[in-house]
TrEMBL record:
Pfam families: Inositol_P. Its cofactor is Mg(2+). Mg(2+) binds at E74, D95, L97, D98, D225. One of its GO terms (molecular function) is 3'(2'),5'-bisphosphate nucleotidase activity. The keyword Signal does not apply. It is an enzyme of class 3 (hydrolase). It comes from Nostoc sphaeroides CCNUC1. One of its GO terms (biological process) is sulfate assimilation. InterPro entries: CysQ/Inositol_MonoPase (IPR050725), Inositol_monophosphatase-like (IPR000760), Inositol_monophosphatase_CS (IPR020550). The lineage of its organism: Bacteria, Bacillati, Cyanobacteriota, Cyanophyceae, Nostocales. This is inositol-phosphate phosphatase. The keyword Metal-binding applies.
Amino acid sequence: MKDLKEILAIAREIGWSAADILRSYYHGTAKDSNLEVQYKQNEPVTVADVAASQYILQSLQATLGNEDFAYVSEETYQSPSGVVQPSTPWVWIIDPLDGTRDFIEKTGDYAVHIALVKETRPVLAVVVVPEAKKLYYATKGGGTFVETRDGSVPIQVSLGKGIEDLTLVVSRSHRNQRLDYLLQNLPCQNQKAVGSVGCKIATIVEQQADIYISLSGKSAPKDWDMAAPELILTEAGGKFTHFDGTPLQYNTGDINQWGGLLASNGEYHEVLCKEAERILAQFEHS
């Protein structure tokens, strides 16, 4: 198996090219730029999702093969039927287009997520925000970097604000009563609406926001929504956990990330987790 540095270089190159594919559909310059929206479990899927997914999977598999790695992509994932096979310790978890609704609505908030997970935790991540022309990358213990066409620089979350001055980054869609109640009762009330988990985490590492909360309802975010953004945030000095402080687990046989998840710049992480649990308990009893 190649070393992580080599694998990261490959993943970054593939990330940039996937971003170019998505931009060609987004800006109508692709050969077949009709977006043809279909729905899979109430979530929109476009030809752009499929084209980017095929490109990423084929490129990774052509370069790295299938012996050392398994591959899970949102567009090709099939729910396991019957017995879950013991998976390989190394798994690529890919969301070729995170933020499809935003992509269709042309808000610019969409991203490419590519994560390499060892056993249940991410060790390498690439998140590309095509409209910002920025690629974020991280390896476990190696810090987070932002890359533009001019080169790359290390990047860190903000520090030194009071809890009431923190800014929450929130979804435009995927809202429900419980989440609204929680957001209305947190000690910090500044909010910024951004689509795509990758774009939300990018705003935190770019110091434009400080907290993101995910609360599953009837459905939950999936491994491919969280794996790459999580490592980008934590290697930039932030934290990303369940409300009870436990780490997220990937490649467990269940791709859903149920419950309450909090991503933050790390400063008031435990306080906010406890506060979120308290507010939700209040909501259940109201």
